[in-house]
């Protein structure tokens, strides 16, 4: 119980620090959305003080000193009120996030889980068959494809499979003639549009899971309890999965928890390349337009999800390996 309480206390402290930094960072950026709007308007002539005040009022630019803004921010946060987006005015931040969140969770979340499971199993196989082609193929192939950046892989797939071969759609989450609804036609079209972004994430992330699990597995195979299990005549499959892989999985589990927490942030470059309407694409628009309310809400969601994922992994560590409780 003390172990759990300590982790909860650390979570709350870290969460408060993240909330405070989330408030401060956008305000440390130079300029504001109102300044950008006024500058564009000034290109056609002088902008009076009344027009500038009207623009600031319309965009909802924060007023008062920094402490008053912080108190107001905490109060709104307690009511889950993130304000109105500057970029997509007059839409609320909550409505924008609720519309983009399902696309990111389905695309990035599902692909992250599939990549982790497949990469972990391939890593176990590579370590168990060390020195054979079953080891060489996944490790060399994984190291090769993981060296490509996300955006480069996305551009290659987009060019060859989208433009040259014309096999898959080049942008968007669904066709222009399809209306979002709970129908087989819509889900099929959405799945068809998600293939290229999903392949990009899968290809670039799979190698890391394979190499990480293989290295952990090789270290575990040298332990005395694995040798003892083999000497007792246990089946190779039992030794590999129940003895070696179970303990080798712990470091990969930490990385998986962080990757799963980062799912909420979306895959910004991939969503940008494929014009996919997820949270990553929304974050790109928020940053480029200095949209304080939208940036704060997205940064906060990403931070909280990573902290919660890290907290869950810590608790799982304590359950899987009692030594970590000390």
UniProtKB/TrEMBL annotation:
<feature type="domain" description="ABC transmembrane type-1">
    <location>
        <begin position="101"/>
        <end position="313"/>
    </location>
</feature>
<keyword id="KW-1133">Transmembrane helix</keyword>
<dbReference type="GO" id="GO:0005886">
    <property type="term" value="C:plasma membrane"/>
</dbReference>
<dbReference type="InterPro" id="IPR000515">
    <property type="entry name" value="MetI-like"/>
</dbReference>
<feature type="transmembrane region" description="Helical">
    <location>
        <begin position="294"/>
        <end position="320"/>
    </location>
</feature>
<feature type="transmembrane region" description="Helical">
    <location>
        <begin position="190"/>
        <end position="211"/>
    </location>
</feature>
<dbReference type="GO" id="GO:0055085">
    <property type="term" value="P:transmembrane transport"/>
</dbReference>
<keyword id="KW-0813">Transport</keyword>
<keyword id="KW-0472">Membrane</keyword>
<keyword id="KW-0812">Transmembrane</keyword>
<feature type="transmembrane region" description="Helical">
    <location>
        <begin position="140"/>
        <end position="165"/>
    </location>
</feature>
<comment type="similarity">
    <text>Belongs to the binding-protein-dependent transport system permease family.</text>
</comment>
<protein>
    <submittedName>
        <fullName>ABC transporter permease</fullName>
    </submittedName>
</protein>
<feature type="transmembrane region" description="Helical">
    <location>
        <begin position="100"/>
        <end position="128"/>
    </location>
</feature>
<dbReference type="Pfam" id="PF00528">
    <property type="entry name" value="BPD_transp_1"/>
</dbReference>
<feature type="transmembrane region" description="Helical">
    <location>
        <begin position="253"/>
        <end position="274"/>
    </location>
</feature>
<dbReference type="InterPro" id="IPR035906">
    <property type="entry name" value="MetI-like_sf"/>
</dbReference>
């Amino acid at each position: 119980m003390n172990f759990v309480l300590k982790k909860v206390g650390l979570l709350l402290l870290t969460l408060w620090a993240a909330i405070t930094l989330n408030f401060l960072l956008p305000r440390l950026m130079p300029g504001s959305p109102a300044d950008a709007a006024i500058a564009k308007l000034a290109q056609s002539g002088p902008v009076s003080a009344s027009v500038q005040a009207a623009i600031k009022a319309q965009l909802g630019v924060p007023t008062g000193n920094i402490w008053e803004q912080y108190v107001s921010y905490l109060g709104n946060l307690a009511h889950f009120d993130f304000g109105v987006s500057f970029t997509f005015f007059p839409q609320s931040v909550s409505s924008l996030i609720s519309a983009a969140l399902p696309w990111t969770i389905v695309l990035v979340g599902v692909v992250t889980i599939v990549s982790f499971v497949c990469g972990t199993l391939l890593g176990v196989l590579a370590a168990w068959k060390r020195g054979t082609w079953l080891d060489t193929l996944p490790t060399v192939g994984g190291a090769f494809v993981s060296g490509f950046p996300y955006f480069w892989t996305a551009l290659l797939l987009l060019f060859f499979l989208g433009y040259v071969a014309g096999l898959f759609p080049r942008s968007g989450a669904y066709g222009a003639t399809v209306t979002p609804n709970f129908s087989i036609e819509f889900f099929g079209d959405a799945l068809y549009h998600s293939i290229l972004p999903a392949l990009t994430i899968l290809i670039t992330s799979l190698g890391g899971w394979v190499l990480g699990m293989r290295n952990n597995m090789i270290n575990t195979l040298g332990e005395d309890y694995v040798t003892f299990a083999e000497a007792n005549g246990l089946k190779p499959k039992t030794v590999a999965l129940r003895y070696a892989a179970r303990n080798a999985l712990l470091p990969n589990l930490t990385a998986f928890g962080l990757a799963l927490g980062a799912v909420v942030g979306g895959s910004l470059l991939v969503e940008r390349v494929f014009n996919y309407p997820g949270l990553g694409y929304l974050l790109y628009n928020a940053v480029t337009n200095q949209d304080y309310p939208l940036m704060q809400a997205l940064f906060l969601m990403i931070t909280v999800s990573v902290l919660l994922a890290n907290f869950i992994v810590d608790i799982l560590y304590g359950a899987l390996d009692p030594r970590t409780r000390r």
